[in-house]
Structures are given as structure tokens and as C-alpha cells.
Amino acid sequence: MTLGMDRDATTHRRWQNTFLAGAIVFGLAALGDAAGTAYALTTPGYVFGDGEFAGELMVFVLAAALMFGCVAFGRWHDRRRAALVAEHGHWLPAPTGRNGLGSVDLDVETARLRPLALRSVGFVFVWLAVLAGVVAGFVAMGASADHLLKTGARVTGEVLGVYKHSRGPDTIYVAYPVGDGHFRYADIVWDSDRQYTKGQPITVFYDKADPDRVRTPDETNDDQTWMWALAIGVIAGVSGLVLSTIAAVNWRRRYRAVSATGWRSASVTVVPDYPVRKGRHMPDITVAYRDGSRITLRAATSSHGSVPLKHEPDRQAWIGGTDRDMVVLFPHGRWREPPFAVPAYALNLRSSAKEAAPVPEDPEAAALVQRRLRWFLIGMAAWYAVLIAVCAVLLAQDLVWPLVFVGLVGSLAPVPLARIAFAWMQAAPKEK
Fold it and tell me: TM segments (predicted)?
């Protein structure tokens, strides 16, 4: 592969990933718009304003059109990149007809890569179901509060205290009479703009069957445990949906690449990035083909990890695919008998044993990368801490759709930030 071809392939891969990110963002926007419209349609008493429904429909159509447009452009760049890296000799030696151990049917193992993509697609639907459940939870919570307002016993109570908390939602403490003549006391979540003072009369609605279930005309007094559970469901659902979509796309690419190249027998050694707990990068996999040529791969982020396989150097395996879409097939995993596929990507081109001799790592450059990784992890932790805090504030203010928007954007924002940070860390050895 020439330098120009390599740059072109890199450019196509970057555009491909960019359009994939765009498809995810616009897909989530369409999903959020559809969920909001469904929530409004199922909320009792909600009335669309003039042109509001048409505007929601227009936003959905536009987001869906942009999503499919990103998918189309991403597939075009995928085909162009695949054509540039189709020269298998850069990654794999010529086939010799000897596949190593005869106990493994390589054609069957190639076919089994496709279900891995389908499994990721299945997880996409699982996370969609989670998000649908979250929307249903918000709808049910709103319907329950409206039902209590319409059917609950209406009495006049008294505000005994007004509390503004530094943590958690503000509350008012009220006393109200129930049917047996006794008074009940309750903390009611204060999430409206109405102001209260101690001793102020207040209208209270309580459930006759459960007098402790109470609300006011302005305060729905939703169960905060359920609100937190739904907020966590939003973040988990969006994050899981994004990761599952990326996994499905990547496994589909690997399946196509391995189907085109077939497998080559090799001896491989898994080299974790010690200490593993610091996780500067995923494990490297050094590959020695039977013709004496070598290549270094790096395991991709996946549930099919390679770290448990580090205990057996120079073990038998098969390599398939090209460039960023390669797979290392082990005869068996550490705890399982069936063949185990590990996704990987090439760090260099295939070369002779002499050319592939490892370059000693510069301790200063490694320390610099380690420091940058530490700052990156601290930044990500701070980002999610701020995201959770903002979601908590929006949740306390009963701002549902801003909460959904912030959850979506906040969960997706680390993706491009991570790419920038990884490029920054990769540049550290060059700076040194």
C-alpha cells in the first residue's frame, strides 16, 4: 500500500466514522421526537398548540432523512475504503491450503461472525425497548398524578415548613386532615414556581385508599426513586444504544472482510498493556505467519476481549480480514472450548521478521501517555459528574424534555472528545 493510498483509506475511514456518528445522532433525535410526541398524545388533557403537531412531524421527517443520508454516505465511503485496502498481501500472506488444526472448520467460523453482528443488532432492539419503557414510565407517572388530581379527596391543609435542600429536590412539609378526622403529615416535592410560606393554607389531594399518597394542584409529588430510575434508564438506554449500534456496524465490516480474505494460520502472542488496570490501550497481538512474515495487531474494544488469553504465548490461531477490520480466531477461549474470535486492527503492514522487530518503548514517552490518559479519565469522570448533576437539577424542576435532550447530547459528546483525546495521546511518542 502506497503512502497516498494509505492516506486515502484513512480519510475514507474518518468520513465513514463521522457519518456513522451523524446517523446515530440524527437517529436519536428522531427517536426522541417520536417519544415526545407519543408522550404528548398519551398524556391526559394535553392539547397541541397551533402548528405544534405539524412541527413535531416535520422535525421527525427531517431527522430521519438526515439519518438515512448519513447511512448512505457512510456506506459509500465504506466501499471506497474497502477497495483501497483490498490488497490482502499487505495484511495476510498468500493462502497455502494448510489451515493448521483440522479440528476447526474455518468456513463455519467465518459464518459465525455474522451472528455476532446480529447479536449486536439484537442489543440495539433491547436498548430501544429500555428507552420505550422509560417513556412508558414517564407517561404512567404523569397519568397517575392526573388521576389523583381528578379522583382524590380534596382537603385544605397547612404548610408547616418550606425546605430548600442543597442536595435533592426542595420540599414543603404539610399537614392535612383525612376522613377519620386525624391529621396526616407529608413531605411534598416542590418543583413548581409557586412560592410557599410557613402557616399558609394549601389545597391537598390524597388517595382515599392510601392517604399517604398526596399531591397539590401545583406539585405532582412524583416518586423520586422512580424519577431517578427513569433518569438512569435514559442515560443507560442511550449509551447502550450507541455502543450496540457501533458494535453491529463493526462486526458487519469484519464479517465482510474475513469473507473476502479467508483465514491464515499463525502463531500469536497476546501482550497486555501492563499494568492492565491502567489501561493505556487494549492489548497488542503479535502475529508470526508460517512464511516468516510478521504483523502487529491491537485488540479492538469488545466483549470478546483478548486479555484472558495472555497466559499462552505463541499459541495457534488464524488471522482474517484487512486493515481496521481484522479478526484473530483462537481454537478456544480460556474458559470455553469453542473457537473464540477477537476483533483487532493492524498497527502496521505485514513485513519480514527483521523488519517487524519491535522498537523499544521510550519510558518518558510512555509516562507522558500515562499522564495524558490519567487526565483524560479525570475529565471523563468530571464530565459525567456534571451531566448527572445537571440531570438532577432538570429532574427536580420537572423539565422532562430538556432532561432527555441533555441526556442524549451529554452521553454522545464524549465520543468525539475521546477521539480527540486518543489522537492527542498517540501524538505523545512523536512529540518525545
Answer: 20-41, 53-74, 121-141, 226-249, 375-395, 401-422
